[in-house]
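Supplementary Methods. Inverse-folding protocol.

Structures were first reduced to a discrete structure-token string of length 138. This string, shown here, constituted the complete conditioning input.
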């Protein structure tokens, strides 16, 4: 009963979630977009690699992609890593991302699945600050 109430109110074991700005997160699906992001800015973190690029268009949406190679492990481990990366992006990108940018999160063998989730969140916030350091505000 308590978990049903917590799910209905949007709270979890750590307390209620802060309200997120109304930002549109779109999933990157085309290989060409992943390749363009791979040639742009990179920020390596212990739990993942963040690749980011400015698209140069005037759209207000933020696009995000996730990739985990077979080096991470079998299908179960890769899917767990992608789920964790999706949740990290969902929790941090609305507040820290810049509209008009593409972000790709690349899973790391062992670290993406085994690292504490709070550490992954902190890594993502730090990576976003580093990627956007020195960029002109849009």
């Amino acid at each position: 009963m308590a978990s049903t109430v917590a799910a209905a109110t949007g709270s979890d074991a750590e307390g209620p979630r802060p309200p997120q700005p109304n930002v549109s997160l779109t999933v990157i699906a085309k290989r060409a977009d992943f390749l363009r992001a791979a040639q742009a800015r990179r920020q390596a973190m212990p739990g993942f690699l963040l690749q980011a690029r400015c698209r140069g268009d005037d759209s207000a949406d933020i696009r995000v992609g996730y990739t985990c190679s077979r080096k991470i492990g079998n299908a179960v481990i890769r899917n767990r890593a992608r789920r964790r990366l999706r949740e990290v992006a969902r929790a941090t990108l609305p507040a820290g991302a810049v509209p008009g940018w593409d972000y790709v999160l690349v899973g790391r063998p062992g670290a993406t699945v085994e690292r504490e989730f709070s550490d992954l969140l902190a890594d993502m916030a730090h990576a976003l600050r580093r990627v956007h350091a020195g960029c002109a505000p849009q």
